[in-house]
Design a protein that fits this description.
- With about 260 residues, this protein is of the alpha/beta class.
- The chain has two domains: about 130 residues, Response regulator (Rossmann fold); about 110 residues, OB fold (Dihydrolipoamide Acetyltransferase, E2P) (Beta Barrel), CATH 2.40.50.1020.
- About 30% of the residues lie in helices and about 35% in strands.
- The protein has a five-stranded parallel beta sheet, sandwiched between helices.
- The longest helix is centred in the first third of the chain and has 14 residues.
- The termini are far apart.
Length: about 260
């Protein structure tokens, strides 16, 4: 029996991984599925498993923060949208990863590697070295794969004006006013992209600096934004973000 912990903040991704694991190996037992750094630290401190599937970007921070609080000796398979630089860091440290969106074959390969290496006495990877490799030159996501009708399309971060939510769905608006469904939540996107160029002004909008055409001060703590392309809903900087937003405006270089 392989006891597994899944740490993933995207519900659909977690459900898909659970389904794939059970279909691949009937001996797998998923003890818990957790979606935050805080809960992960608490759970891992009190429980043991054979294998952890760990998403890098969680709703309350980076999963590497877990290693700062808990001495993890358990093998880990990362689920990630990181680029080539970060994947090289994983390989150097002998850590396996699933590059999103992953398939049944990807998961099966990861499990096979776990069984052949870790269950035969291989020592756990050097997570401290991994963190040192990743953090000095942080890499931001620069390309996004989206559905354009029946076709797939890759768009660059420079083509994106802003990200926004409608109900529980996240969308991308391009500079040319094309709209695409995003596979990642605003919470995750906020961690993946350059915070000097994009700012989370409220729960529903993550706006690019270049998309802001005009700003109106409604009060000391309320700012209304005029974006280009024009969104269907009014965009206000939330009360608790207005001070930080004013500082951000002064830090972002105009290009």
């Amino acid at each position: 029996m392989i006891k597994v912990l899944i740490v993933e903040d995207e519900r659909l991704a977690a459900s898909k991984l659970e389904e794939l694991l059970y279909s691949i190996d009937k001996e797998i037992e998923i003890l818990a599925t957790i979606d935050t750094v805080r809960e992960s630290i608490e759970w891992i401190s009190q429980n043991t498993v054979d294998l952890i599937f760990l998403d890098i970007h969680l709703s309350d921070g980076i999963s590497f923060d877990i290693f700062k609080k808990v001495d993890i000796k358990t093998p880990i398979i990362f689920t990630t949208a990181y680029d080539e630089y970060a994947l090289k860091a994983f390989k150097v440290n002998s850590i396996d990863y699933l590059l999103k969106p992953f398939s049944k074959e990807d998961v099966q390969t990861g499990l096979s590697k776990f069984k052949s290496l870790f269950q035969n006495g291989k020592t756990t990877p050097d997570f401290d070295n991994l963190i040192r490799m990743l953090n000095p030159n942080k890499q931001y996501q620069k390309r996004f794969l989206v559905n354009a009708g029946a076709a797939l399309k890759s768009i660059t971060i420079d083509e994106i004006a802003y990200f926004y939510n409608i109900e529980k769905n996240t969308f991308i608006c391009s500079n040319s006013n094309q709209h695409y469904a995003s596979t990642q939540s605003l919470d995750k996107l906020e961690l993946l992209i350059d915070s000097e160029q994009f700012f989370r002004v409220n729960r529903n909008f993550l706006v690019g600096f270049k998309s802001i055409k005009k700003m109106y001060s409604l009060s000391k703590s309320r700012i209304k934004l005029e974006l280009q392309p024009i969104p269907d809903q009014e965009v206000l900087v939330s009360f608790n973000k207005s001070g930080e937003f004013r500082i951000w405006l002064g830090k972002v270089p105009e290009q």
